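notes to self, project folder thing:

trying the whole complex as one job this time. last attempt i did each chain seperately and stitching them together was a nightmare. two parts in total, labels are on each line so i dont mix them up again. if this works i'll redo the older ones the same way
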Amino acid sequence: MNSANDNPARNTKLMNRFDLTSRLIAKLKNEEAVIGGIGNTNFDLWAAGHRPQNFYMLGSMGLAFPIALGVALAQPDRRVFALEGDGSLLMQLGSLTTIASLAPKNLTMVVMDNGIYQITGAQPTPAAAVADIVAIAVASGLSNSSWAADEDDFERLVEESMLAAGPTLIGVRIDDKPGTGTTRRDPVQIRERFMHGMGVREPL
Amino acid sequence: MSWHGVVLQTLKRNEVRLVPYVPDRVLTTLIRNLHADPFFTTFPAAREEEAVGIVSGAWMGGMRGAVLMQTSGFATLANVLASLAIPYQIPLIMFVSERGTLGEFNYGQSLVCRTMRPVLDSLAMEHHTATRLDEFEFIVDRSIKQAITTQAPVALILSPLLTGGKVFDK
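result (full assembly):
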């Protein structure tokens, strides 16, 4: 069986999830929503600095993009980012076609691809040695999908996505490091604060 | 008014605009009429779980939604109900067209149907089985309002007694 590193699609720079998440958060000036997928993806979002516009998932593997799509449909004038792991995305590949058909222009999706289920013991995903997530996204109808070559390219793609005429998907190849923080697992507070951040509700 | 007319009008009266679905034969007319009405944003999702994620995100963004599915689709939802809708207190509104009973011709459908109410009961979720047109609007309207005010999901099961169900054709 091939190892992940033999896959010719994975020829971009190996980056770090926390570093990339921090770079993304540093660019947000307009109360953009950020949906963090389960496990390390939202742990690093938490560690990058809590914002009321962040939503942290505590289960429901694979639903970061669908949840972000819902936010994007509800608030078409707000930019919505979704951070998802490659293993999580494999649970819900069909959602890429739903997003492509609805084509919300305010949605930017980031796939953190390390080819492993890091949090469960770093087992390789079934896609790791054989599939290209960005090619899958393009074939699903998300034509504005690309791999980030390095950190500067990631930042450039994030900025481009904010002006794009349709949804954007950015694939980033990351290392096998675990998340740097641990999200406080309080779903009601997470949801309530997010709704405050979205301007839907006022605190009591 | 027909049962599907009641669903459409009651959704509209309660400002429920976003209606993703995984289709069912029984839901065909309702889905067609939702598409034809510009009040609604309605579209197919690849999986019921995905549709639940979409309406959950929309709720948090200030837009009300409901998901349409059939019995076998509900059977894929235990994880998302237990990890998203219930603990995050999302008023998820589900319409489930009931297959598997009262004339079912597919053994698999009749088996999966038997898992539905035990799953709902094990999570202590509000659910109602609608069998009569004369009380249907009351059930739908009150259930939507209760879901929103109590921030809790609800499943409305559409019995073949209400819809006619799906009968063996080929």
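what i see at first glance: Chain B touches chain A through 33 residues (CB under 8 Å).
need to look closer tmrw
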